[in-house]
Specification:
The complex is a heterotrimer of chains A (366), B (306) and C (573).
Chain A (H helix, E strand, L loop, with lengths): L3 E4 L5 E4 L2 E14 L2 E14 L3 E5 L6 H8 L8 E9 L2 E2 L15 E4 L3 H4 L6 H13 L3 H14 L5 H4 L9 H13 L5 E5 L7 H18 L2 E6 L2 H7 L2 E6 L2 E7 H6 L4 H8 L11 E2 L36 E4 L2 E3 L14 E2 H6 L1 H4 L10
Parallel strand pairs in A: 5-10, 5-11, 8-9, 9-10
Antiparallel strand pairs in A: 1-2, 3-4, 3-6, 6-7, 11-12, 12-15, 13-16, 14-15
Chain B lengths: L1 H28 L13 H10 L6 H15 L13 H36 L4 H15 L2 H15 L11 H31 L2 H8 L4 H13 L1 H24 L5 H11 L2 H29 L7
Chain C lengths: L3 H6 L6 H11 L1 H18 L1 H4 L18 E4 L4 E6 L9 E3 L8 E8 L9 E2 L16 E3 L11 E2 L7 E3 L24 E4 L14 E3 L4 E9 L12 E2 L4 E6 L2 E3 L13 E2 L2 E2 L1 E4 L10 H37 L6 H21 L4 H20 L9 H27 L2 H12 L3 H28 L2 H8 L4 H37 L5 E2 L2 E2 L3 H11 L8 H28 L8
């Protein structure tokens, strides 16, 4: 049983076992010319009511596909999805067309690029009211009223007028606000935010994250925050799942994960990001090599070829196992991973390899 | 938008003036007049005829007179070859027929093309997709002066389901409309399919699906508008292809339309009639292109006309 | 596993063209297109050698016959030996094979001469055209003057001029007289009035000959090519002993008392097969379609080559020389000026061939000049360039409007008008079609050149001191060739289609006053020959099939090439 700390609206911590979404052994494979791409390969995690879960990983690690596969948004063929995704007692993967009653009503999604995620040919009004009409059975007029309220709530000035505009008349941040309003206006129990801030300016990013956080607290909505940005996770999420090559490699609460990473990949992620609290000369340690080709995964641990701590057992596939209370990881290491040797500071790396050669003997054998 | 339409309409007379001028002088400078085929005509009679049609006057006077008649009275002059008929009468007779033909063909093309394209895009890589797109390639490659005669052979000569020629009843109209519409149906189907596939791959379609909308609503409300944009922008040039096509189709099915009149007048050097028909075609083209632009602007809110 | 990226980089790098060809051959539609194109073009090149018949040779007596029709064929001489025990008075010989422009020479050899009593030459009226009949103009009897009086004319419609002796009056060689032992030789030359020839229905034309005879010699004067004549020889009620052809006995004629319907020569059937049938005047459809294809392809190829040459030269030059302000507008302006120049030149010389050539010369010269003169980097240097460019720039806007107008009209209308005004001359066709095709090509090449120009290797060449000329022809042109190849293969079918369109609506191109019958004309003809119930459909279907397959092939090949050369596709799959 997973125990999770949860913050109530009053700010008090409490324990909850109320599982909203239980994903078990989810797979999503794609048939391509190169072979079968195992985009998601046996993913298991839970989301509790009102909780916010972060899913972190490089691009191509299967974060987005996990989300799409759960929600039945993966086109089949070429995709093939199996496993279980039990949402409030119903397996989303076995609902067939019935999943439409859950999509948009009980589970809403915000996508990465607000520029392309809104239909450029339809007015905001139409795009917002159609979900309300469909799911809440409102009339067009009522739906519009509600949509305007929501636009106001997400901070769109003059919403009564702007609702009749087209997406291209909004800025990127405003569009993402519209997306949020659209997603939350049906008051869903789970909000999946798929890289909601990646396409936005840094200042706007913060506003959007704050907005999502505020609304989450207000509505008690659970949030799955899919991102490659550790900063976003740190600020938003209580619990974090780290994905690599279609599998979960580590799961922990946010403080545990950032303070005490248990998987070499998580450690690599953390040490490759410059931190504001470090000095300029602090060494950055990139993860060497490229994310693996999902159609031709290496035998055993997918991360082993890039892992500084890999050893002979890594040729077997590690399973995701409990590691500490409330923590899971998939690694053969007995203890915690050692931090790899720093390769250079950010400023040194910018100067190019010539000057830094002496400092990185580890790179000599590619 | 209104200002844009007005400005385009204001440009129309200029366009037409240049068109009239070009065709007028092109026709007049050609060696051999309209009556040069009538040999053995005594010179005095020839002079009489030329006087009747003002061909004895200097070129600029003829031009000025023609222009004045066209502008003030909409009078396109008498036909040189059809005795006792004015160009206006001939056009009034032929234009409705050509319009009907074009209209029927357009309805056929859009109905078949869009539905085939949409279905093919929804069922990508299905037998329907492959089948309809192969037919579309055939329809685009085989010229309509091949398709038309073959349809005549099969449906009018062999099975006698439809009529060979004429423009009286529905049985006359089916084959010409199909012949004229087929290449457009084919092209529209391909454009629709490509457009729909592109749109369906867009993020906002994923958004619509994530809202829980039924697939039908996703396609009709969210995808169709954008998916049809390439079709709409094809309608502009498509219209001129259709005019050229109607020349052939009217000839195959002996339809007494404007296209037949144009070819006949061109072959007979009936210059007033040539000028008249070209002028009418020009007006239709300019107006229809304007309509297409306006429709495009309506469909794609990102387009601004200022 | 760590060397995965290196592996990816180590993929053997292929040349652009090798890569493209490999992709092309994977595309089976394109391969089909390539095969069709090779087949069609080789048959067209070889058409003059491989077509079985002269495409304009008419056999009216044959009429329209479906594909696979077998026609008795003859050589120049057929001898029919009739059994001597038969009563020659009942012998009537029907000769078929009276086509146009032919002189038929019939030698009647009587044997033994003593028994010959009279000669009747009857020319029956045609059933098809009963009110008219062929004329027998002259009959020559080189010897046996006394039988002249006994020559009877059975139909007053016919005039018979008898001259004797006048062996060379017709201007042909005197036929070799047949010497028979102890016999007299008769030679009859009959010339049918050419002006009435189309009306002759040869099946109804018969020469009857009454008399005792051992041998009947029929001789044709024909070009060697037209051996495909019918020769049906009806020998009514006679027993035929033997038929000689060119002195050789012909097998298969021995059936006594029957009409001859089959003949073999040296065991080979004396039959010519019309693979795709004949048209209503007996022309061989296969030959006509192949010849028509030759014309269609030639038109397509020449017009395309003209447009490609001009288009590439102008496009590459202008693309390379142009500064940003020299837009495609000036190119359109050039085209407009070209069309105007075409018109003026054409008018000046009365629409004649030299006029059209002059127009093309102007077309070729004017437009490049307008580019060359423009801009700082014009070939003439900055000062002269600017001097010459300023009036052009002023006119630019006006010309643009003009071009808009011309482009408002579907350009086939313009081509029709041009063909009507300047005549249905091959050069006018090339000029009219080429003018527009050339423009498109130039625009494409120009765009490609402009983007190439910004590539680093061009900068490198420029920095290293290469001349403009060498940059264009060493760096730009080879890189543009892909686009050109694609567009060329797509232009050929377009031009073929346009020419056939014109031919279909009646604007056949004429060479030396003769209509050149391309596929479009043949299809039009086939349409007009259709009968209820689908009769004579082969006249339509066969040229239509040839044309469609060719257009397919060219389009597939062009599409395949485009896909193969598309740089975005490069290295994929």
């Amino acid at each position: 049983m997973t125990f999770v700390e949860r913050r109530t609206s009053s700010g008090r911590l409490e324990r909850s076992t109320d599982i909203l979404l239980d994903v078990r052994d989810l797979h999503c494979h794609f048939k391509t010319d190169d072979g079968i791409v195992k985009a998601v390969d046996g993913v298991t995690f839970q989301v509790l009511r009102g909780e916010s879960l972060g899913i972190v990983g490089e691009s191509g690690s299967g974060k987005t596909v996990t989300n799409m596969a759960m929600m039945g948004l993966v086109p089949t063929p070429p995709g093939k999805v199996w496993g279980e995704a039990i949402f409030d007692g119903q397996d989303l993967l076995r609902l067939g067309d019935g999943i439409r009653k859950i999509r948009g009503r009980r589970v809403a999604t915000i996508f990465q690029d607000p520029m392309t995620s809104l239909n450029p040919f339809l007015r905001i009004e139409r795009q917002m009211t159609e979900g309300l009409q469909l799911h809440l059975g409102l009339s067009r007029g009522d739906a519009r009223k509600r949509a305007v309220e929501w636009l106001e709530k997400v901070g769109i000035p003059n919403p009564g007028k702007r609702i009749f505009q087209y997406p291209h008349e909004f800025s990127g941040g405003m569009r993402q606000r519209v997306m949020i309003a659209m997603a939350l206006s049906t008051e869903p129990e789970l909000l999946i935010a798929d890289e909601p801030t990646t396409a936005l300016d840094v200042t706007i990013q913060a506003q959007i994250l704050e907005l999502i956080g505020d609304l989450q607290r207000e509505l008690g909505t659970a949030v799955i925050m899919i991102t490659h940005d550790l900063g976003v996770v740190a600020g938003m999420c209580e619990r974090v799942v780290v994905m690599y090559a279609g599998r979960i490699v580590e799961e922990a609460t946010a403080p545990d994960l950032f303070g005490d990473p248990a998987h070499p990949y998580t450690l690599g992620l953390l040490t490759s990001v410059p931190r504001l609290d470090e000095t300029v000369d602090a060494r950055l340690i990139p993860i060497e090599g490229q994310p693996p080709n999902l159609a031709h995964l290496p035998e055993g641990c997918a991360f082993a070829p890039r892992c500084a701590s890999s050893f002979d057992r890594c040729s077997d596939e590690p399973r995701l196992e409990d590691w500490a209370p409330g923590r899971r990881r998939a690694c053969w290491l007995a203890g915690k991973p050692e931090a790899p040797r720093p390769v250079g500071t950010a400023s040194e790396r910018l100067r190019g390899p010539d000057e830094t050669d002496a400092t990185k003997p580890a790179e000599a054998s590619p | 938008m209104l200002r844009y339409i007005l400005r385009r309409l204001l440009g129309l007379p200029v366009v037409l003036l240049i068109l009239v001028t070009i065709t007028f002088f092109l026709a007049r400078v050609a060696p051999g007049g309209p009556f040069s085929a009538d040999k053995n005509v005594p010179p005095e009679i020839k002079a009489n005829i030329e006087a009747k049609y003002h061909l004895d006057k200097p070129l600029h006077v003829q031009y000025g007179r023609y222009l004045r008649d066209v502008v003030t009275r909409g009078d396109l002059g008498p036909s040189f070859k059809h005795k006792d008929q004015t160009v206006n009468e001939i056009i009034e007779r032929g234009l409705p027929v050509s319009f009907q033909l074009g209209f029927l063909a357009a309805i056929f093309a859009v109905t078949f093309g869009v539905s085939a394209g949409v279905i093919a895009s929804i069922r990508q890589n299905s037998w329907f997709d492959y089948g309809s797109m192969s037919v579309a390639v055939l329809g685009m490659t085989i010229p309509n002066f091949v398709v038309g005669p073959i349809l005549v052979l099969l449906f009018a000569r062999y099975w006698k389901v439809f009529n060979v020629a004429g423009w009286e009843e529905l049985k006359d109209m089916v084959l010409p409309a199909i012949t004229l519409g087929l290449p457009f149906a084919a092209r529209i189907a391909r454009l629709t399919r490509a457009g729909m596939l592109e749109i369906v791959g867009q993020d906002f379609i994923r958004t619509a699906r994530a809202k829980g909308l039924a697939e039908r609503v996703v396609i009709v409300r969210h995808a169709l508008k954008g998916g049809l944009l390439p079709v709409v922008s094809f309608l502009g040039p498509g219209l001129s292809y259709m005019m050229v096509g109607s020349l052939v189709v009217e000839r195959i099915f002996r339809i007494p339309g404007l296209g037949q009149e144009f070819i006949e007048s061109a072959l007979n050097r009936d210059y007033t009639l040539v000028n008249g028909t070209v002028l009418v075609y020009g007006v239709i083209l300019v107006v229809m292109n304007l309509i297409v632009d306006v429709v495009y602007g309506y469909l794609d809110p990102r387009i601004r006309y200022d | 596993m760590t060397d995965a990226p290196e592996k990816a980089n180590a993929v053997k790098s292929r040349g652009l063209w090798a890569d493209a060809l490999r992709r092309l051959f994977k595309n089976w539609m394109a391969v089909f297109g390539l095969i069709v194109v090779i087949l069609v073009s080789s048959t067209s090149i070889l058409a003059d050698w491989i077509i079985p018949f002269d495409p304009s040779y008419q056999q009216r007596w044959v009429g329209a016959k479906p594909p696979g029709h077998e026609q008795l064929s003859v050589t120049n001489e057929v001898r029919v030996t009739v059994g001597s025990e038969t009563d020659p008075r009942n012998l009537s010989t029907f000769l078929e094979g009276f086509g146009p422009d032919e002189t038929h020479e019939i030698s009647l050899v009587a044997h033994p001469p003593r028994e010959l009593e009279e000669i009747w030459i009857k020319i029956y009226k045609s059933r098809k055209y009963p009110d008219r009949a062929p004329k027998v103009r002259e009959i020559f009897f080189p010897t046996r003057r006394e039988t002249l009086d006994e020559l009877a004319i059975t139909d007053p419609l016919h005039t018979l001029r008898v001259t004797d002796p006048l062996p060379k009056a017709i201007g042909d060689e005197e036929p070799e007289p047949f010497e028979l032992p102890g016999g007299a030789t008769f030679r009859v030359k009959k010339k049918i009035d050419a002006s009435l020839l189309p009306l002759v229905d040869p099946e109804r034309t018969a020469i009857e000959w009454f008399g005792t005879s051992a041998k009947l010699i029929l001789q044709w004067e024909r070009p060697a090519r037209s051996e495909n004549d019918v020769v049906r020889i009806f020998l009514r009620g006679r027993r035929i002993e033997k038929i000689l052809m060119n002195g050789e006995p012909v097998e298969g004629f021995s059936a006594p008392g029957r009409d001859i319907e089959e003949a073999t020569l040296d065991g080979e059937p004396m039959v010519h097969t019309h693979l795709f049938g004949t048209d209503d005047v007996g022309r061989d459809v296969l030959s006509r379609v192949l010849k028509g294809g030759q014309i269609s392809l030639a038109v397509g190829l020449i017009a395309t080559l003209v447009s490609v040459t001009i288009g590439v030269a102008v496009g590459a030059t202008s693309g390379f020389l142009s500064d940003s302000q020299v837009s495609s507008a000036s190119m359109l302006a050039g085209a407009a000026a070209t069309m105007a120049a075409c018109g003026i030149a054409g008018v000046a010389i009365g629409g004649s061939t030299p006029g059209a050539i002059a127009a093309i010369v102007v077309l070729v010269l004017f437009v490049p000049t307008s580019f060359v003169c423009r801009g700082e980097r014009g070939l003439l240097g900055p000062s002269i360039g600017r001097l010459l460019a300023s009036p052009l720039t002023t006119v630019d806007g006006l010309l643009m409007r003009f071009v808009d107008i011309i482009y408002t009209l579907p350009y086939m209308f313009v081509v029709i008008l041009l063909m009507v005004v300047f005549g249905r001359n091959l050069f006018v066709l090339f000029a009219a079609l080429g003018a527009v095709q050339w423009l498109t090509m130039a625009r494409i090449v120009r765009g490609q050149t402009l983007s190439l120009k910004r590539k680093e290797f061009v900068d490198a060449a420029e920095v290293s001191g290469a001349s403009n000329f060498s940059i264009i022809f060493n760096h730009i042109v080879p890189n543009v060739l892909g686009v050109v190849a694609v567009y060329t293969t797509l232009t050929i079918p377009a031009v073929i289609l346009q020419e056939s369109f014109l031919a279909f609506i009646g604007l056949t191109v004429q060479v030396d006053g003769e209509a050149v019958e391309s596929w479009g004309a043949l299809i039009n003809y086939g349409l007009n020959q259709l009968e209820d119930g689908g009769g004579r459909s082969w006249l339509l279907l066969i040229p239509a099939a040839f044309m469609s397959v060719t257009l397919f092939g060219l389009n597939f090949l062009g599409d395949g090439l485009r896909d193969a050369l598309d740089p975005r596709m490069r290295g994929k799959s």
